[in-house]
Amino acid sequence: MITRRTFITLLGGAATAWPRAAEAQQQAMPVIGFLSPSANSVTYVAGFSAGLQELGYVEGRNIRVEYRWAHGRLELLPELAAELVQGNVDVLVASLTQAALVAKKATATIPVVMAGVADPIAVGLIVSLARPGGNITGTSGLAADIVGKQLELLKEVVPGVSRVAVLWNPANSTFQALQLRQVEVAARTAGLHLQLLEARAPKDFEAALAGIVKEEGTRALAVLGDPLFSVYAAAIADLALKNRLATVSAGRVFTDAGMLLSYGASYFDLHKRAAVYVDKILKGTMPANLPVEQPTKFELVINLKTAKALGLEVPPTLLVRADEVIE
């Protein structure tokens, strides 16, 4: 019987470029590593599992998935990535920008499939969307005008709004910088004034949001995408409601937790598409030759309970456009 290590040695240079992808055909059950900076997300896992199942994979029967979650603690990602690399996974799925950046540093040989990364070219993960190069490919999750649409939604629900507070995390500067540029451009286009609020840890939330009331006319809060904010979405939603702020964010995890509006790419769909990349790589395709996909499916979710608590009336035209209304 040829072992995994012996197989690589026999093939020599021809196999070292993509050892895990070649080995996938030699073993009964490929092993996939799944790395995420977030908490254990039902959406991410459900999307990825659904994609695998459609392609004929059943976890525990003909494929194994090793999950690693950082629960919003970005400093844990390098150690978690190292565990997966040392475990000889065949493909490493990196969920969100922070995980993909860590995966790039952790391995140059194991194929990496990113899921929902903001701007993979700008952060240095790939060379181009059409030909990513290297060992990384997958899906991008941040569309160019997504923040602009979020601010437009706020203006529809909050008549006369002129100032919007923006919650961001300086500790996650690479991803946050992309979003901040978007929100600044969108605010100028929409004629809105911004108040930037920093929060690096849960202890910062209350002070940050309390500072909003000092700014006259600030009645709305935009929460930028960030694993820390996702983990503590309910706490942020409660504080926003306490301060009578209409909230908008990019992910439905926030509206599920009690925020008013969310509009952004479907992370279920992005992780489902990640399974397609895994399948192609296991069948021998090199990541460098798999074009990166941009999001095509977006979700608008409205929390009517929160709207009523804030005394806001959501226009019927907006309710009709919503993918889901929480009542």
Describe what you observe in this structure:
The protein has 327 residues and is α/β, with parallel strands linked by helices. The chain folds into 2 domains: 4-142 and 266-297, Rossmann fold, CATH 3.40.50; 146-265 and 299-326, Response regulator (Rossmann fold, 3-Layer(aba) Sandwich), CATH 3.40.50. The chain is 41% helix and 20% strand. The chain is built from 15 helices and 12 strands. The chain has helices at residues 4-11, 13-16, 19-23, 42-54, 77-86, 97-106, 146-157, 173-190, 205-210, 227-231, 233-242, 252-256, 267-282, 304-309, 316-321, and strands at residues 31-36, 64-69, 91-95, 112-117, 136-140, 163-168, 193-198, 218-223, 246-249, 261-265, 298-303, 324-326. The protein has a 7-stranded mixed beta sheet with strand order 7-6-8-9-10-11-12, sandwiched between helices. Strand 3 (91-95), helix 6 and strand 4 form a beta-alpha-beta unit. Helix 5 (77-86) crosses helix 6. The longest helix is centred in the middle third of the chain and has 18 residues, at 173-190. It starts with a helix and ends with a strand. Mean pLDDT is 87; it is low at 1-17 and 20-26.
